[in-house]
């Protein structure tokens, strides 16, 4: 620990002092050459990180639409490990982090599944290896399968163009790999790094390599890219978990106060092995014909374990009561529980649980592109396929023991046992084994034609069409053992020898009762013990089929100082959702269910106009305006056919109640406008301001509807809670951007985004005091990067922050938020030779924690600590 702290302190000092010392020769040279001569003037090419920053700025300046970009050196030298980590440095882009790394992207305040990512212009199938039924497969792209080392350019398209595929309300990210014929022959690059995580004290190696070859004629070539990463993460958490707070009602049925459900500490460990490869071939068959075949292969294997212990108040809420409760704003924030003498169920003062899951996912993508340049036109055709599959086996085991206990939420949530129960004191409360599998596949064909025009205004016109056949499915099988009928059939001491998770949250102490769990012993017990139930669970399963046909026309114009494009895109979606109507007499026992297969088709089409204007006010100032209609298709879980319902006498006017998906959903739709001014005061410098306005016509919400279904006694009328197309709202904001290369090796990049979402409510919602919120929308996001690069030294400090944002409403009808989070990262490299450099990345230098809150009142949630991470190694280019 002390060695690590000294290393971090040294890195911070080095970042300042090395850059300063290395710059002295430049300043001295400037003084010595105060009188320039014609012989001394020469063209200086800016390369390395500074060159890539300039290249990214050139892409933005020359674009007809509103585009931000990050180039290859930019990605490779940012203190980032994934593409999403790099994208968060772009104005208007924020990320969601999982396991300490960014893997989901939000653009201009929209949720990740409302944005779109294209790999060389095409979709990449995504599968999940999540063990939680609360996180079903999503349309959002999993950036963790794309290491930054394999990327040439990232483009963030914030305004729509007719020739770019529809499917995004927020923005579109286009990831581009290197072209074999545009890369130097026999170009080799590789890096070897080791990652040290402070929290776990473990080391994880990573290896990346790239090779490009082309023949002497320069008409045939290929490149190979490969990344292998062994990522080991440990996270310590104090908090309340996904259950949060439970309302306690008064005699009239109104909420009297909120009681924390489970005050606990958790240690999470993850081992993830990632292997990603790209294989690209290119053939210039003639002066007119180019053929390119791109391929992506990615495989992830992972093993995760949670161990948790803490105080559970379920028995207290049902009548046992909290001793010495402390109330604050209608919430029990502290109190104690006496040991329960019940020798059977609900001996829950101490509640120990563990999740152990193993699995992974595989992804592949293949695209064949033929491009023919004729006299005054360019014709291209593409055929491709992409597929992904994922699976995971998840074991959850819960144990309980009685003891005098207390808890306190005034500050970071904590618990205390007066006498810590031994492992033998814990009876088994519940166990299950979930076996998830999911897959996604898409086959497509696309044709594009660009025709040059001899016209004073329009320089060319683009027309094209595309057909996509898309399939997504997810399935769950659940095994349950008989422990809930015989709590003492097995006890915790069969899997825990009494050792506890030490050095919790970087301290020398350990949490009470946070016993290490031997999963191999549990697997042996499950092999020897028959299951009580083993069932396919259609309520957590679905199959979706989509066929999308689209066509577009786009006119490109360039007249004096004005350039841009205007176009129209048409998209028709034919969807089929396959599932079941599930009548559930006993909701927790699938053996009692009646399953009726069901299938619903839903077709819709959309006409999407777009306009992009760029006006070169002078040589240094560009003014832009854009307008478009855009859409994003509903997430998979919302479209599933399945209905689960049961009879009940407690729902007036209905025979019962239930819930499910809604295959008849229409897409999210919005009309958006963008306005910006960009001042390029040097080749590598910009100051800009942009305003965006998104009028969201419809946003998916939940509602109760009446449906005629077949119940226990034949046809009945049931109240079903489903997703619906609700009214939308407005999301508008401002982006400020500043970037400057001082010309002496030093530079700075800074941006700030303000996003204000005002969602509409129905009259009933307003009367009930309900205020709608836009998920994943942070009002404030900003980035600041300071860098130095010269004399073989490269150093950067990068800080990224996003403010509090809403993630959804949970079963307890409380909203859940993620608190504002900022992270300081650093990157250091020293060029040993022209080809070899030493590199170091330091992530989360200030050891920031990630936390959640419940409700508008900001009730304490989880507080996660990942600790610092250091990547150190060597990189080489030949």
Q: Looking at the structure, what is the overall shape? A: globular
How would a crystallographer describe the biggest sheet?
Answer: 29 strands, mixed
User: Roughly how many Å apart are the termini?
Assistant: 37 Å
In percent terms, what proportion of residues is strand? over 45%
- The number of helical segments is 8
- As a whole number of angstroms, the C-alpha radius of gyration is 29 Å
User: Considering DSSP H and I runs of 4 or more, what fraction of the residues is helical?
Assistant: under 10%
Mean pLDDT over the residues: 87
Low-confidence stretches are 1-46
Number of strands: 41
The computed structural class is: mainly beta
Mind explaining what this structure looks like?
By secondary structure, the protein is mostly beta strands. It contains eight helices and 41 strands. The strands form five sheets. It has a 29-stranded mixed sheet that branches. Strands 1-5-6-4 form a four-stranded mixed sheet. The chain is globular.
Give a nutshell description of this structure.
The chain has 878 residues and is mainly β.
Q: Any chance you could write out the topology, listing elements then pairs?
A:
Layout: H1 2-32, H2 48-62, E1 67-71, H3 72-77, H4 83-87, E2 93-98, E3 101-107, E4 116-119, E5 153-157, E6 172-176, E7 187-197, E8 203-214, E9 220-239, E10 245-249, E11 255-260, E12 262-284, E13 289-312, H5 314-320, E14 323-328, E15 331-337, E16 350-374, E17 377-401, E18 405-408, E19 414-417, E20 427-452, E21 458-480, H6 519-528, E22 533-536, E23 542-559, E24 562-583, E25 594-616, E26 621-632, H7 636-639, E27 643-647, E28 656-660, E29 668-682, E30 685-711, E31 714-741, E32 746-759, H8 763-767, E33 780-790, E34 793-802, E35 805-809, E36 815-818, E37 821-831, E38 836-843, E39 850-854, E40 859-865, E41 869-877
Parallel strand pairs: 4-6, 24-27, 28-31
Antiparallel strand pairs: 1-5, 2-3, 5-6, 7-8, 7-41, 8-9, 9-12, 9-40, 10-11, 12-13, 13-16, 14-15, 15-18, 16-17, 17-20, 18-19, 20-21, 21-22, 21-23, 23-24, 24-25, 25-26, 26-29, 27-28, 29-30, 30-31, 31-32, 32-33, 33-34, 34-37, 35-36, 36-39, 37-38, 38-41, 39-40
């Amino acid at each position: 620990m002390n060695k690590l702290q000294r290393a971090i302190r040294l890195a911070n000092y080095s970042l300042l002092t090395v850059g300063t010392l290395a710059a002295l020769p430049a300043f001295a040279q400037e003084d010595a050459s105060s009188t320039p001569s014609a012989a001394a003037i020469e063209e200086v090419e800016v390369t390395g990180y500074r060159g890539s920053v300039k290249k990214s700025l050139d892409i933005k300046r020359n674009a007809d639409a509103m585009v931000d970009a990050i180039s290859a050196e930019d990605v490779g030298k940012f203190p980032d490990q994934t593409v999403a980590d790099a994208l968060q440095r772009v104005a208007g882009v924020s990320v969601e982090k999982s396991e300490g790394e960014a893997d989901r992207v939000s653009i201009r305040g929209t949720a990740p599944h409302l944005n779109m990512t294209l790999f060389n212009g095409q979709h990449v199938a995504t599968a999940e290896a999540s063990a939680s039924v609360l996180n079903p497969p999503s349309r959002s792209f999993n950036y963790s399968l794309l290491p930054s080392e394999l990327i040439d350019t990232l483009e963030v398209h914030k305004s729509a163009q007719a020739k770019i595929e529809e499917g995004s309300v927020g923005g579109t990210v286009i990831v581009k790999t290197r072209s074999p014929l545009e890369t130097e022959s026999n170009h080799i690059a590789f890096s070897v790094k080791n990652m040290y995580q402070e929290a776990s004290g473990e080391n994880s190696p990573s290896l990346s390599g790239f090779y490009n070859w082309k023949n002497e004629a320069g008409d045939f070539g290929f490149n190979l890219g490969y990344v292998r990463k062994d990522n080991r993460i440990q996270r310590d958490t104090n908090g309340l978990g996904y259950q949060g707070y439970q309302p306690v009602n008064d005699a009239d049925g109104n909420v009297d106060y909120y009681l924390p459900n489970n005050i606990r500490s958790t240690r999470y460990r993850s081992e993830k092995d990632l292997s990603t490869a790209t294989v690209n071939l290119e053939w210039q068959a003639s002066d007119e014909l180019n053929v390119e075949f791109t391929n992506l292969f990615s495989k992830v294997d992972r093993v995760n374990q949670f161990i948790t212990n803490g105080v559970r108040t379920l028995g207290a809420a049902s009548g046992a009561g909290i001793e010495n409760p402390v109330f604050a704003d209608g919430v029990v924030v502290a109190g104690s529980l006496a040991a329960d003498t019940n020798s059977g169920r609900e001996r829950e003062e101490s509640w120990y649980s563990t999740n152990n899951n193993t699995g992974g996912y595989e992804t592949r993508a293949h695209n064949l592109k033929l491009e023919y340049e004729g006299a005054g036109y360019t014709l291209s055709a593409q055929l491709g396929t992409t597929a992904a599959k994922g699976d995971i086996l998840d074991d959850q085991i819960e144990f309980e023991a009685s003891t005098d206990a207390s808890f306190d939420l005034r500050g970071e949530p904590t618990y205390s046992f007066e006498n810590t129960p031994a492992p033998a004191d814990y009876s088994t409360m519940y166990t299950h084994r979930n076996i998830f599998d999911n897959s996604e596949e898409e086959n497509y064909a696309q044709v594009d034609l660009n025709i040059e025009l001899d016209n004073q205004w329009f320089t060319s016109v683009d027309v094209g069409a595309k057909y996509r056949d898309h399939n997504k499915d997810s399935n769950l099988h659940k095994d349950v053992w008989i422990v809930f009928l015989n709590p003492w059939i097995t006890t915790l001491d069969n899997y825990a020898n009494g050792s506890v998770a030490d050095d919790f949250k970087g301290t020398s102490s350990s949490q009470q009762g946070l016993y290490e769990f031997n999963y191999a012993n549990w697997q042996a017990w499950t092999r020897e013990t028959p299951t009580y139930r083993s069932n396919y669970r259609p309520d957590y399963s679905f199959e979706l089929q989509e066929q999308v046909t689209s066509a577009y026309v786009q006119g490109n114009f360039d007249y004096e100082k004005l350039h841009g494009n205007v176009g129209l895109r048409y998209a028709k979606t034919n969807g089929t959702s396959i599932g079941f109507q599930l009548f559930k007499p006993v909701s927790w026992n699938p053996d009692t269910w009646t399953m009726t297969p069901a299938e619903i088709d839903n077709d819709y089409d959309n006409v999407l106009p777009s306009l992009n204007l760029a006006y070169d006010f002078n040589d240094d100032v560009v003014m832009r305006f854009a307008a478009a209609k855009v859409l994003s298709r509903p997430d998979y879980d919302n479209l599933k056919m399945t209905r689960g319902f049961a009879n009940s006498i407690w729902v007036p006017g209905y025979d019962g109640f239930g819930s499910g998906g809604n295959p008849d959903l229409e897409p999210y739709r919005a009309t958006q406008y963008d306005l910006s001014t960009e001042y390029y005061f040097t080749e590598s410098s910009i100051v800009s301001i942009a305003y965006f306005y998104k009028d969201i016509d419809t946003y998916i919400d939940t509602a109760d509807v009446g449906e005629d279904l077949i119940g226990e006694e034949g046809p009945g009328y049931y109240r079903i809670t489903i997703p619906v197309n609700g009214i939308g709202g407005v999301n508008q904001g401002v982006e400020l951007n500043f970037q400057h290369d001082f010309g002496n090796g030093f530079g700075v990049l800074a941006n700030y985004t303000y996003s204000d979402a005002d969602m509409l409510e129905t009259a009933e919602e307003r009367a009930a005091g309900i205020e709608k919120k836009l998920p994943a929308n942070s009002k404030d996001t900003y980035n600041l990067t300071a860098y130095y690069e010269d004399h073989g030294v490269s150093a950067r400090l990068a800080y990224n922050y996003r403010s509090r944002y809403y993630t959804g409403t949970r079963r307890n009808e409380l909203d859940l938020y993620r608190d504002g989070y900022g992270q300081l990262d650093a990157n250091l490299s020293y060029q040993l030779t022209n080809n070899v450099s030493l590199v170091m990345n330091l992530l989360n230098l200030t050891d920031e924690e990630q936390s959640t809150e419940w409700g508008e009142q900001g009730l304490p949630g989880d507080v996660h600590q990942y600790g610092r991470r250091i990547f150190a190694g060597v990189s080489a280019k030949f």
